Amino acid sequence: MPLLQVEHLTKRFGGLTATDDVQLAVKLGTIHALIGPNGAGKSTLINQLSGALRPDGGRIVFNGDDITRLPMHQRVARGLARSYQVTNVFKRFSALESVALAVQARSGSSLRFWQPVAREQALFDEATSVLERVGLGRRMEAPAGALAHGEQRQLEVALALATNPKLLLLDEPMAGQGPDESARMIELLARLKGSVTMLLVEHDMDAVFKLADVISVLVYGRVIATGSPDAIRANVDVRKAYLGDEQAEAAA
Ligand code: ADP
Ligand code: MG
């Protein structure tokens, strides 16, 4: 059974069907990439999975349970997390404090009976290990707002990891980054691969083909193909719809 099973998911905005009968299965331990042109419905799909948007039809089954109607915080509690942009609130805190807050938000109940000092130490220890995991071990004391753009993206991943997710939803984590920062993010996601399952929306095809085990292609709200990177690269419909006819012809 896949970790995430999306069945017939449909979302309309007025006359526009932004996700149209979407079927998707994400296997445990994999990176599943979702690609497609601008406006294809990728973010709309991610927002329905995270609970930010309510679908008009279809089902979301996560870890064996139907979560279609669950509010966002209950999805997070079950291990479904997405990374958000570091907010203005977080910018004033150090990277360590920000992640400690996220750990605390998750573990509030499980740590309730600890001694206050021990509890604080446990929060900071866990936050430290999450920051080391994303490569920010040496930047823990910096205010989040003072981090470089690429480092803020790493911090966003850390904030999501602090909730201890089974599945991490990533909506264009390389967007707006230079080649060095993108390379660092690719390295980070490659390192996390296996320990956390990921659904990755990304425009950077280098990143997608390096990281993904499976790729689904969304066009006008519909999944037109799902397969291995090699199968997707060779798929004529995908080339026509996504890469453009010229490239498809040139490659033929
Ligand atoms: P992608 O992330 O693939 O670029 P989106 O999911 O953002 O695509 O958008 C899919 C389509 O739905 C687009 O045509 C977009 O304009 C439209 N759309 C997205 N969000 C809304 C909304 N809240 N209200 C109305 N239309 C929306
Ligand atoms: Mg988008």
Textual characterization of the structure:
The protein is an alpha/beta fold and 252 residues long. The protein is built from 11 helices and 10 strands. Helix 7 links the parallel strand 7 and strand 8. The protein is globular. 40% of the residues are buried.
Tell me the strand percentage band.
15-25%
Strand order of the largest sheet: 6-7-8-3-9-10
**List of distinct ligands in this structure:** adenosine-5'-diphosphate, magnesium ion
Structural class: alpha/beta
What's the end-to-end separation, in Å? 37 Å
Q: Strand count, sense and closure of the main sheet? A: 6 strands, mixed
Gyration radius from CA atoms, angstroms = 19 Å
DSSP strand tally: 10
Number of helices: 11
Order of helices and strands: EEEHEEHEHHHHEHEHEEHHH
Percentage of helical residues? 40-55%
Uncertain stretches: none
User: What is the mean predicted local confidence, pLDDT?
Assistant: 90
Shape: globular
